[in-house]
Amino acid sequence: MFIKPAQSRVVRHPGTLRLLSSDGENVTPSPFWHRLLAVGDVIECAPPSSEPQPSQKLSSALTERRTEEGKTP
Question: What span, in angstroms and rounded, lies between the C-alpha atoms of 2 and 72?
Answer without folding.
Answer: 43
